[in-house]
Design goal:
single chain; 261 residues; 7-stranded parallel β-sheet; 8 helices; 43% helix; 17% strand; binds nicotinamide-adenine-dinucleotide
């Protein structure tokens, strides 16, 4: 039997990048993947690709920053598929305008970054946890970032938002262990999702400074600093699966060691 046979996995930000890759992998291993994303065209395409590959998928147009939208999506998931026992919070990301604390634009960058990364994660947990408890438990995986561990500058707002996700993860893990729910966070290193490639380029391609390059554009000798969406998706599936049943409240450092040395 497949690892996630019969499970309902809700993934936010699943129209692209790490979320889409994880949705494909959950479906390939027997789960029904419920994709929540604000991008309707990309979300429908992602769900259709899963279905065409023989998996089960449902796309629900959702704005994770909007309480009513998230509540409606979880209600629709319940009505059409059943209770989610896996929740993956992938909707998130930084803005290129993010800046140091003294200079950053409060109205736009602060609000949008905190809303998308922190409020979005908070709301998805708020609405998915009650049916998960009723179903006997499950697993939540929150996407944080290596930026939360190494105090990334100049992205002070993104760093603060991703750090708060780690604290929220521990608080949820402590409270909901008694309900059979594990909650973990992944601190991802640089992953070449389409968004990242279009914003920052790939090393060596366009001469722009990247994590894997020095100031002159030479490749650095740290081969694990950068990865593909599928690399992070594998870790998501591990944390969601029974193989990780002794891991909860954890911060998984998946940044190729960048925050360690
Ligand atoms: N890619 C990286 O290098 C990297 C590094 C560290 C952490 N992360 C984190 O991993 C997660 C996934 O990153 P990615 O690069 O795969 O992202 P991505 O940009 O490829 O995908 C994010 C998805 O979220 C959706 N989204 C945006 N706003 C939304 C909203 N309000 N409601 C619902 N959906 C919304 C987008 O439409 C998109 O489909 C993010 O939380 C990101 O911060 C990524």
């Amino acid at each position: 039997m497949s690892r996630f046979e019969g499970r309902i996995a809700v993934l936010t930000g699943a129209a692209a990048g790490i979320g889409r890759s994880a949705a494909e992998k959950f479906a390939a291993e027997g789960a029904t993947a419920v994709l929540l994303d604000i991008d309707i065209e990309a979300g429908e395409a992602a769900a259709a690709a899963i279905t065409q590959a023989g998996g089960r998928a449902l796309f629900l147009a959702t704005d994770v920053t909007d309480d009513a939208s998230v509540k409606a999506a979880i209600a629709e998931c319940l009505a059409r598929c059943g209770p989610p026992t896996i929740l993956v919070n992938c909707a998130g990301g930084s803005m290129v305008e993010d800046d140091v604390v003294t200079d950053v634009d409060l109205d736009r960058v602060w609000s949008q970054t905190l809303d998308l990364n922190l409020r979005g994660t908070f709301l998805a947990c708020r609405h998915a946890i009650p049916p998960m408890i009723a179903a006997g438990g499950g697993a939540i995986v929150n996407m944080s970032s290596g930026a939360a561990l190494r105090g990334a500058s100049p992205s002070h707002v993104y760093t603060a938002a991703k750090g708060a996700i780690l604290s929220l993860t521990r608080a949820l893990a402590g409270r909901y262990a008694r309900d059979g729910i594990r909650v973990n966070a992944i601190c991802s290193g640089r992953v070449y999702s389409e968004r990242i490639v279009s914003a920052y380029g790939r090393p060596g391609e366009n001469g722009r400074l990247d994590d894997a390059q020095d100031a002159e554009g030479r490749m650095l000798d740290y081969p694990f600093w950068v990865g593909e969406p599928a690399d992070m998706a594998e870790i998501v599936l591990f944390l969601a699966g029974e193989g990780a049943r002794m891991i909860t409240g954890a911060t998984i450092q998946a940044d190729g060691g960048r925050s360690s040395y």
